[in-house]
Structure formats: C-alpha cells, structure tokens
Amino acid sequence: xxxxxxxxxxxxxxxxxxxxxxxxxxxxxxxxxxxxxxxxxxxxxxxxxxxxxxxxxxxxxxxxxxxxxxxxxxxxxxxxxxxxxxxxxxxxxxxxxxxxxxxxxxxxxxxxxxxxxxxxxxxxxxxxxxxxxxxxxxxxxxxxxxxxxxxxxxxxxxxxxxxxxxxxxxxxxxxxxxxxxxxxxxxxxxxxxxxxxxxxxxxxxxxxxxxxxxxxxxxxxxxxxxxxxxxxxxxxxxxxxxxxxxxxxxxxxxxxxxxxxxxx
Length: 264
Fold this sequence. Notes:
By secondary structure, the chain is of the alpha/beta class. It has helices spanning 16-25, 47-62, 74-87, 100-106, 118-122, 124-133, 146-152, 158-168, 191-198, 208-221, 241-252; strands at residues 6-10, 31-35, 68-71, 93-94, 111-116, 138-143, 179-183, 203-205, 233-237, 258-260.
C-alpha cells in the first residue's frame, strides 16, 4: 500500500482526458496534474526544447515524491520517452502514443486515419508504429495543431472547431475508412464533434483506457496501490491559473482549483 500520488504531465489541458480514465479506474488514488500552459503548444517547439521542458516538469513532480509519472501528451512522449526514463530511473514513467496497434486489430476495411498534432504526425516514432503494427493497412496521417488552441480556450469554440474539423477531414472517405485514431490527448474532448463530421460508422480510438490499465498494472506489480479512500486531486499550471481553471472546468464539467507551478 502506498498513498502518495500519481503524477500526470501535459503541455496543457489535454492530459485531463487521461486523468479522467485513471481516476475512474483507480478511484482511491490521489493525483498531481501539471500542465505546461506557459509553453503550449509543444507541437511548434523543437525536440530539444520539449525534452528540456519535460525534464523540468518531471523534476517538479519527483520533488513531490510521486510514485509514478504519466507523460499524458503524445508530442512529449514521441519527443523523448526513452530519454526521460534514462534520466529519471527511480520513478516509473509511462508515455502516451497513438493506438495504431489496436486500430490495426479492429479495422475491418484495413483503412485507418490517424489524427494528431503536426509534430506527432511527422515523427519517426509514429511512422515506426505504423510500419510495425499496421503495415498491411492503408494508414492516412492527418494533423492539426489549431484544434489544440481551440480546445484550450476557456470559451465555447464549437463552431470554429467544426470548421477546422471539416477542413482536416475533407479528404477522408468514411465509406472506406472505418477506424480513426485520436493521436492527441486533447482530441477525446471533441469526439462528439468529430463523429458529426466523419459519421457514426467510423470507430474512434484513443489511448486513455489503455494508459489507465497500464498504470494499474505497474502499481499492482510494484505493490503500491492505495487502499484508502482519502484521495486528493491537485492541479498545477505554469500558465495563468484563472484562465486555466476555466478551461479545466469546461473540459471536466466539475469545479477544480488550479494553482501556479513555479518552474524555471
């Protein structure tokens, strides 16, 4: 039994989709969520910059003695998950990558679309996943980093999100494509709007459930699951807490308090 929290890192608010899955599967566990809103979006940053920032975020969480860290950001994961693990060997670190293997297993038409940020779409990591697990499928990689910006806004941007989605999916034939991978943790928050555009026959997949189950496996194997119900949820941001709080409440549909994280 270990009552210290799980740490969750994202470039902004998208990792809350992973947080929701973890806290649903493991309702007794406490969590510390850290969003690097000061440098959002990561997709427009260099690999070196992303790795340096994530290392600082991990430092912040290890100082709070978390028992496991989830890099709940596809871009941050593909930028350097192996490096983070080498740099911080004393804490288990889990990444988030597009569930291309699962998509290849469930598709009936062998036609898959992967929607991610520009950085993730262009990464050798994603291309390796496709080559390894979906070589027999037709996989189309499409990207949008603007969607992250719209989702991060405290305002309701439904109409502008729909417009961007129509543009992003303009080349997709939903009569052929039957599986769509959401390769950014922000995107599950607009899954209803995505379905409106691509149609209900296209199966949407995201990483949240798989990540939560992996967290549970590691905590169980390490014998550090908590059995107490006195959970606590902490939310930190490197950005402006008032604005981030509004975004978190919009996405989670619940009251939360976000406090500043001082990271140099």
